[in-house]
Amino acid sequence: MKESTFYLIVYAWIAVAIFIFPVIIRIAAPYGRHTTQKWGKMIDNRVGWILMELPALLVFSIFFLCGTGDRPAITWIFFTLWVFHYVNRTLIFPLRLRTSGKKMPIAIVFMAIGFNFVNGFINGYYLGSIATAAQYPLSYLSDPRFIIGILLFAGGMFINWHADDILIHLRKPGETGYIIPIKGLFRYISCPNHFGEIIEWSGFAMMTWSSPGLAFLVWTFVNLLPRALHHHKWYKDIFPDYPKSRKAIIPFIL
Ligand code: NDP
Q: Ligand 1 pocket: which of 157, 220, 221, 224 to mutate (most atoms <8 Å of CB)?
């Protein structure tokens, strides 16, 4: 593929995210607490999660590993971090969920497969076939973009995993109801898992300093900022005693 065609795809993908943001803000994505039968046929929640996330792991890995570019040492660090995140999200996180008997619409699974396919492709292809040794020499390890980026990635991942862990343990095995979380960053915001995920992919975009990394960050933001706002409203509607000072996704601000 010509580099110019590839970048056209990436910029078009960013444009799509910006274009649909107003829609996603209005319609709560119907999985988890917002699930509705109106979106057609349903699939087991756990199976849905594995299927949705698999392309992000497989497509990214295939395009990186089969890439025709230089694949300098630094790109292997980016590859490892991406795979580390997605092994958890695809193969470990769904098996830990306490959502027995719950379902999600197949339509959501298909949309997420498309989303993860494109993001996996543009990032895997970029790192495997376009990134050059001149762009990522070994000295890039001391570049502020790499250092700040990897710190953001690690910090965001820690916040995300810690929050996911708190949420999973709110229920005893077999339970499916909802409880107000009070530990960790939940003291300040309703959705530290989403907050952490956005920070994590900001770090990836910064350390790769690439338009595919930026595209994935934009999409993560477009997915998760509205989801956090919908969750926050849902908590306030359902729990009259929900902490008044708690924000949705950015401590003390939003
Ligand atoms: P949620 O916070 O909606 O749910 C996570 C899990 O915790 C679910 O099993 C949910 O159960 C359970 N849970 C949540 N709140 C409570 C509560 N108050 N009491 C009891 N159980 C609760 O997370 P998402 O489903 O939105 O996302 C899951 C992960 O995937 C997150 O880490 C998120 O960052 C990531 N993600 C990333 C995206 C991206 O674009 N990069 C897009 C979407 C998600 P139930 O399912 O029954 O509600």
A: 224
